[in-house]
Design brief:
By secondary structure, the protein is an alpha/beta fold. The chain is built from 9 helices and 8 strands.
Length: 290
C-alpha cells in the first residue's frame, strides 16, 4: 500500500494512536474531524503546507513540514522509499493542531540533499537521530511506511531511549532476497536521469490502492521525479540485503502495526510474524483497503 492512499486507515489513525496509548489522549485529540478532504476521487485539495529545512550536524539538509507544538512526545512521519514528506500531507491536514508532528523527506528525496552515497537503512536511521538532536526532541513516536518501517525499527533498536512508540504501516518483516524486489532492483539498475514521468506514474499506480485523486497523484509524480536514479538503485539494493528480524525481540517501544487486507505487496503473514516477535506490538487490520 502506497502512502498516498490509506482509505479508511487514514480516517481512523489519530483515534487508533490514542486508543493504543502511543499518543496522549485529551478530549478532541482522540476524535479529530477527519470527514472533510479525501485523497480519493475529485475531492482531494492539496491545501497549504509550508516546508522548512533543517541542517544536521553532518551538514546534510533535510526538508520537512511541521505543525503543532503542544504534545510530548512529538510524532515524526517517515515516508516510504521514493516518497517526500508531501505523501503525508493529507494526514497532516487531518491531525489536531496541538499535536506536534513533522513529516520528513529523507536524504535523496524531495527537496532534501542528495549526496552521492549513504542510502542504506542505517544511513537513514542515523539521519533520524540527528534530526531529533537538532530539533531538540528528546523522545518521539516514529511512524514509518513500507521500507521506512525498517528505518524506524533501526532507530528503536539502536536508540531505544529516543523512541516513545512505533507506528509501522504496511511493514515488511524483511525484504532480503524478496523475489519481487529482486526483479525490481534489476529493472531500476538500468534507470538513467532524467527518469521518465511515465515510469514514475506507473510505479506509483502499481503500489497504490485504486482511486487515488488525480491531482494528488500528479503531485506525487512531481515529487518522485526529484529522486535521482542512483538513489533508487542504492536504496532498493540495500533493502534487498537488510534483515533485522533476529533483533525484533529487542524492540520494547509500544508498537502499532497497521495493515490493509487488500495489500498485494506486504502479506498478512508478515504482520503476524512482526506481532509475535515485537514484545509490545498490536496489529490493526483494515478490510477493503491496501
Amino acid at each position: 500500500m502506497h502512502s498516498s492512499e490509506h482509505g479508511e486507515l487514514v480516517r481512523t489513525r489519530a483515534t487508533s494512536l490514542c486508543e493504543h496509548k502511543i499518543l496522549p489522549s485529551d478530549g478532541e485529540v482522540c476524535a479529530p474531524d477527519l470527514g472533510g478532504r479525501s485523497t480519493r476521487g475529485s475531492n482531494y485539495h492539496s491545501g497549504v503546507a509550508n516546508a522548512s529545512t533543517v541542517t544536521l550536524e553532518s551538514g546534510l539538509r533535510l526538508s520537512y513540514a511541521a505543525q503543532g507544538a503542544g504534545s510530548n512526545p512529538a510524532v515524526v512521519l517517515l515516508p516510504g522509499p521514493t516518497d517526500s514528506w508531501r505523501s503525508y500531507q493529507p494526514i497532516l491536514e487531518r491531525l489536531p493542531p496541538d499535536l506536534r508532528v513533522m513529516a520528513v523527506s529523507q536524504r535523496g528525496h524531495g527537496d532534501s540533499d542528495k549526496p552521492q552515497v549513504g542510502y542504506s537503512v542505517n544511513d537513514f536511521a542515523a539521519d533520524v537521530v540527528s534530526l531529533l538532536d537538532v530539533l531538540g526532541i528528546e523522545r518521539a513516536v516514529l511512524a514509518g511506511h513500507s521500507g521506512a518501517c525498517l528505518v524506524a525499527r533501526r532507530v528503536a533498536l539502536d536508540h531505544r531511549e529516543r523512541v516513545a512508540g512505533l507506528i509501522l504501516e504496511a511493514s515488511p518483516t524483511t525484504l532480503r532476497d524478496h523475489a519481487g524486489l529482486t526483479a525490481f532492483v534489476d529493472l531500476v539498475s538500468g534507470l538513467q536521469d532524467p527518469i521518465s514521468p511515465d515510469f514514475v506514474r506507473s510505479f506509483l499506480l502499481d503500489t497504490s490502492s485504486d482511486g487515488v485523486a488525480v491531482a494528488f497523484l500528479e503531485q506525487l509524480v512531481n515529487e518522485t521525479l526529484k529522486v535521482p536514479a542512483r538513489v533508487w538503485q542504492a536504496m532498493f539494493t540495500d533493502l534487498l540485503q537488510y534483515d533485522d528480524t533476529a533483533e525484533l525481540k529487542r524492540i520494547w517501544a509500544p508498537t502499532l502495526l497497521l495493515w490493509g487486507d487488500n495489500d498485494a505487496l506486504v502479506s498478512r503473514d508478515m504482520q503476524d510474524e512482526l506481532a509475535s516477535h515485537i514484545p509490545n506490538a498490536d496489529l490493526l487490520v483494515y478490510t477493503g483497503v491496501g
